[in-house]
């Protein structure tokens, strides 16, 4: 049942580069190659203001799509059957009336390459083109559609019922409701068809990697939005109460959130739900997006077999194959290991047999060596027996000597008794001597203390008293000096009394001082006048200097901006920065000035246009400009080198050098804009040419005119309407608005007048947002600074002259002040003399004062310090007497000390006598003592020998104990050692037996010393290897059984699937007069089983394997489509998606493939199918079960433009009936 389509224009994003989906902050990319290869003439006519409509016969069953330009959203509704029938009747009556009025009976609507035309129905055959090579009963036209709607078909479980997108790629808000069978999504390039494919993939929980486009999920959020959402409703299972609705929210920061039926869900739960419906987005046989068509065509046969099983066979078939691959790999690895182990075992056994004679001989030698070792180890036992016996002997001797010593001591005891008594007396005298010596030392200490306390302190007091006497004598001398001074003072007073000073002329002195003050005031007035003249000049000079400092700051600021630009240049291109640095350092080598990149030399006048201007000149922002061919060649040689000239150069690879000196427009003044600036602003409402907003050196601007056409590219800060953009296509080659940069490209391959308009977004400024140095401003500042410096020098010269005059005046003032001070001093001196005379009073008073001073003098003469000196002398004498008394007492104490010393001498003599007696007695008993001492020494020596023998026996016993505890001793070794110990062999006997055994050893050849170790190690390896081989053989038998069991189930099932695919594939090829076959290539290795597709497109050919080398691109495309169609009837997946599979086909193959696709995809009980295509041929096959989704959006669709498909179909029917 037909429905109608109404559409409003949808502004979609344009691209700046190729083959990319929109990412955050940018618009979707449109490939230039797509523009050239895929844009049909009909698509271009759809974008023109006339809005010519192309209507095909497939518009039988479509969606009503309403697109709001304000929200860029689609709302898809399905009209009820009754409403459509009523609408048809109304439109039929309107069309009949219209036909009568227009007089168009018997006309047919026919679509040609030039558009939609009405022609006379003179030839029925021309108006009904059949499908070449297809049976007539399979073709459906408008007559078939008139028969009515087929029964409404339900969606299969897992099929997509609804897709809703919000802020996703190009869409703001859109909802699709696909049909249960074939869904054709058509529309011009760039309208958002593939966006639906992206939404299905991402919305059902798969990664962007399966789309072959942007890798980051956040790149699919619409430009300018923070998040996007995809909501997909799939048909539930019969047991489900409601259809599952999967929603995925995507943020621009690459985060995702899942919801199932409105509840938060995990990625794993979404994947489990998809698995329950057998949805395989990662299978190219089910989901083939536009950017992965080439990847599917490039699938190797092995992977094609795997994908085919996933798409067409039951799940267990692929599981069986994977199990066989896994078991086969394990079996192959085990077999290789088994063979390697068997070879290793044979080698080991052979080497083991060759070693057996040597091993027997070496074992005998080892036993002899062990016997020698045991004899050597038995030596500690023999040593222990000897040392133990020695210890017992030493102990017995020590006891015997002790008894002898004790008996001798008792026998000599009476003889030694007298000597002992004398020794006791000697000891008593020695004690008394020590006590007396202590008393002498104590008395000596008391003497020293008394001397310090009494004699030394008395001496100190005597010294102090003598010092006081000296002071009194000194005061007497001072008194005599004072007496002399008083006599002189009295004499001076008497002289003043006799001489009266003369009168002082105070007025005369004051007048002289006033005259000096007047001269000083006059000079100060002159100085102030000079200062008054100089101060404004000084203030002006300071102001000028402040201005100079401000200018220096401004120049530093300008230079800082230049540094920022140079730093930016270094970051963008190290080579260009090196080249620019070299140019600055070698400016004297050029014929004419050479200019750095526009990034350095140019500046945007108005910062509002910085992004627009930068977008125009960005590609040439790093170019270096020179003005002569000679300079150009110099730079080429220096930067890139010259093999011909033998110049190595700097090896710079990223440097661009521009030279227009030899062109027809070598200077900026010759550049001509298409129209005047007044006409551009008034007629076209543009702000100006790009050149008007950029300033810099003329050669650089001329280069940008040549390369970026800044003199002929109009710019504006406002948005343009579609009508203005359409009009500009025929006037300008490029223009820039507030957001977009439009460029007109002529498409000669489509005709002389064919052209396309490419629009790309204006990017954020990154080069000219840092302002460059304004050279004119810099020069003005430098000129101003020079003028200020000149003025400052004039002011300084004037101030210096005035200062010299001022200093001369100050010098005169100083001289006058000095003279004034001298006059004042002279006056004060005379006044002082007069004041002193006045101070003396009258002559009577002066005489009285003289008498008073004479009285003081008499007192001084009478007063002296003789009496005080006498008193001090007496005190000194008393101290001397006291010290003499102390000396006498000290002498008494010394006598007592001497007596003690005498007693000490007596005791010392007695001690000497006692020692002499003891010595005498000892000499008489010397023989007895010597005998006792010798016996005592013998006892001590015997004791030492006993201890040493005992320790040696203990050490030997410890050695024996450790020997028996060693880990390397076997039970046989310990038994052997016990047997040797029981024989009680001496060390000599052991050495003798060792010599005998070594004689036997010399008769045995040594051979390979490692033979036994290797033999035993190899024996263990053989034992382990034999066990391993047995275990692997058992495991291999189990694997072989498992392979046979799985293969018995998998191979028949695979053969059945491939046979069905081959039958359907062959049938499709037969329909177009060709041949095709699908078979499985089998090998022993299950990893190498593969699908082979054989095709034949010509009668003279044989069936050949489909490869990239044998068949053309169109033939491979046809084969790919037929192979996918062959999977349709066997599909395990609930839906399939194929995006632009018909690209590269010629019209005949495309028509044949489309016909076959419709017939297969629209059969009952087949899975849902999505076919995405930007172009269609006229008069294609249509089926009632298919559903057509037309997306009509773009930059040139008018905002209020609507397509009434129902009315178009009704007119087509009327024309048919007529």
From TrEMBL:
Gene3D superfamilies, A to Z: P-loop containing nucleotide triphosphate hydrolases (3.40.50.300)
Name of the protein described by the UniProt record: Structural maintenance of chromosomes protein 5
GO cellular component, one term: nucleus
Principal localisation: nucleus
Pfam families documented for this protein: SMC_N
Residue ranges, compositional bias (Acidic residues): 79-100
Domain RecF/RecN/SMC N-terminal: 160-1173
GO biological process terms held by the UniProt record: double-strand break repair via homologous recombination
Subcellular localization, as worded in the UniProt entry: Chromosome; Nucleus
